[in-house]
Every structure is written in structure tokens, then in C-alpha cells.
């Protein structure tokens, strides 16, 4: 009675503390509900019993299973309490601490690896110091699964119970033999019984009900090995995760061990949520590489289909944008080519118009010139005929009045000036080119009569030059016949042969060649002073008539 009174105040204090903690968490949740979401709180108790006091019960793997399980759960954000080779008192204390940790937790997980058994439909977990002699020792030296369920029920969120137990237990057979005869209601069977259905819980057995699980030959049992592997796969919903674990164990054991899963959750739940922060980082991104990487790293994530969809959408948009850019570039190129073609066509049209206008202008000028020339020729013919008729009548002794010459029509002043301007330009070109045939043709086509003396001297100089070239440079030059109009040549200044002194090393041919080149240059430049000086310094006497005519043609301008 005293013991009960001593325990009662402690229990009351514990309830008071729990109520205060629950109220505090409630206030915190209310305050944070308007701000950022509260981080999920996860707790776990992991037990692995290998070194049993009864040496026939020693198992090599549960200790490894518990340590590896605790390490993985910590990476998943769990606050983990680990007990290895726990006796009855250690197990009770650990369960008490776990029950306190589980209060209002978002997820509470209990993992046990070791020996367990069922009696009369109830499951019992064996501490390492359990000594089972009868049903009374079974009740007080083991831990009832109901106590574990009670601790898990304190969690406000998901409850997860994982039992990698039901190993082959020789104590069960001995306990059955001791209890035979003592009671007719002996109900100790192999394996564990199914737990009653409850809402919000996930129960995973290493093997089917009433069956025995293998301990395994490696570091971990087949069940725990598969569990550790799948826990590290992000984005697996817990039901799907345990179904994959069951398939892995069944395949590994050749069908001899088939884990059993019971899931009673309304919403989906994910133990490994490493994909969530990765998704939060990229969900608003427009980078196809980010979604491609996410789908590769987290193929089991529920967000993987969204990542694939976003990836396909972005790739389609990128392809369409690329096509649009290419279309715009092609349009710009076509527009540029079209503009260049239009500019070229405009230039050609302008050149054609300009050429047509120039041809029309030249045609008008030529027509005017031809008309004026024809008029002048008719007038000249009439004057010649009138003079011949007057001479004939004079010789015949006629005293008739002289016939008046017909009135001389005046040429259009503007046309005559244009004709002279064009002929002056043509004469200047012929002086530079010295083209013999063109000079002869121009003599017959000349329209400006005041330029005829200059054209005559140019023609005579070119003809004399051609004849001397044909005779050869070694012959002495002959005096060319002068034109009747070339009277000014007799008034040329006296030649100063001694003014031009050639180097004694130069031959007469070299001197003539040098002076011929100078004469060609002076015909092009038409510089009066240079021509006069060149005439005084001339060393090739056969070129003197041409120099005289050039000087006279320049002087008459």
C-alpha cells in the first residue's frame, strides 16, 4: 500500500507535467500557425537484443540491426533512443522515456530486433535477462506488446511499429513442455500474433503471422537489410516502401520469408523526405536541367511526375522559342535581302533613267548640231555658187547687178556654244591620247569651225610623227609641208640649239626618246611656259616641227 502511495504522487506529477507540456505545445502551434510551418517532430526507440543470458538464445545480428537503424533514422530527422542488449529494467526505463518523448510527436517509431513470442494471442518481447519458467514469468519478465502500443498512442501523428523478431526460440518449446499438464489451455505457438487493427498506425512484421523470421548470415537480417536500403530512397510513401521491402525479402529468401504489413493511415506519409527541400528549391525554376536532375535523383518521389511534366513543358517551350528565334532570324535575313534587292533595283532604275536622259539630251544636241552644220554647208555652197556666178558674169562682160546672197539664217547661239564645248572636250582628249584614226574621224565630224586650226595642227603633228616612226629613228627628219593656214610658223622665234645640252654619254636615239616622252606629257598638260622652255631646250631636231605646232595651238586658245 505504501509502495502504491509512493508511486501515486509521481504519477500525478508526471500527468501534470505532461498536461503542461501539451498546453505549451498547443500555444506554440497556435502562435506559429500564422507564420512559417512548424518543423515535423519525430521520435524513435530502437532496441536490438543479441547477447541473451540464456546462451542458446544468442543472436549475432540484432545489435547491428539496431545500430544501423538508429543511424539511418537520425539522417531522416528522428530523435533516436537506442538500447542494445537491454534487460527487463533497461527496457522498462527506455519505454518510459520513449512514452514521454512521444507525447504529441508528429511521428513515433518503435523498432525491435531480437526474440519475441506469442501466448494466448498476445505478443511478448524478450529482454536479454528473461528466465521463462511458466506463464507467470512470461508476464513479469518480458514486455507486453500492449505496453509498446500504449507508448506509441501518445504521439499525435503517425505511429510506426517494426518488429524484426519471431526468430526460432528454443525457450518456447521448453515452456510448452513445462506447462503441459499444468493447464489444458496451453497456447504458446511459433511467431507473433497479428495486432488488433487501430487507426493511424503502421505495423510491419519481419515475417507472416505465426511464422519464424531468419536472422541472416550477413551483418543484418534480410528484413532489416531491405528496410535500411528502402529508408534511404527519398520520396517513397510508407505503404509503398514496406511493400517493396516485402518483395525484396521474399526474393532474397527464395519465398521462405514473407513480411507482413498493416497500414491504417488516411493520408500518405513519407519517412524519407529528402526530396521535399530539393523540390522546394526548384519548383519555381525555369531550368530544365534542375527538373531532369530531380527526376534522376528521386525517381520514387511523388513529385517525380511533376518534375517530368515540368521538364517536358520547359523543353517544349525551349524548342518552340528556338524555332521562333530561327523564324525571326530567317525573316530578318529575308527582309534584309529584299531590302538589298529593292535598293539594287532602284539603283539600276535610276541608272537607266539617267542613261535614258543622257541619251535623249545627246540626241537633241546631235540633232541640233547636225541641223546647224547642214545650214552652214548650204550657206557655204550658196556663197560659193554666188561667187562663181558673179565671176562668170564678170568674165562675160555682163553688167547685171550682183545677185544678193540669200539671207544667212542665224544658228541657234545656245546650240553652237554646246557644240564648241563638246568639241573642245573631245580635242583635249585627243591631244592626250594621240589616236591617229580618231583625230582623222574628228576632222570630218568637227562642228565648231573656230577649233579647226587647232585640230589641223594636231592632225599634222600626229601624221608627221607616224611617218617618221615608219621610216625609223636613224633617218634625218624631213621638213613637213605646212598647211596654208599655218602661216604663224614662219614667225616662230629663232631656235637656240645650244640651250639644250645633253650628256655626252647619251646617244641621239636616247635623246629623241626622252624628248618624245616630254612632248607627250606637254600635249596632255597644255602648259604654255613649259612648252616654250621645252622648245628652247629641245635636243631632238626632228621633233621641233611638232613642238612649234603645239606651242602655236596653245597660243591660239
The strand line-up of the biggest sheet is 2-1-3-7-9-10
Largest sheet: 6 strands, mixed
How many structural domains are formed by the residues?
Answer: 4
The chain-level structural class is alpha/beta
Instruction: Enumerate the spans where pLDDT stays under 50 for 5 or more consecutive residues.
Output: 1-38, 180-189, 398-409, 474-501
How many separate helices?
Answer: 17
Over the alpha carbons, how many angstroms does the gyration radius reach?
64 Å
Provide a descriptive summary of the structure in words.
The chain has 17 helices and ten strands. The protein is an alpha/beta fold. The strands form two sheets. A six-stranded mixed sheet has the order 2-1-3-7-9-10, with helices on both faces. A four-stranded antiparallel sheet has the order 6-5-4-8. Helix 7 (about 220-230) packs antiparallel against helix 8. It is rod-shaped, with a radius of gyration of 64 Å.
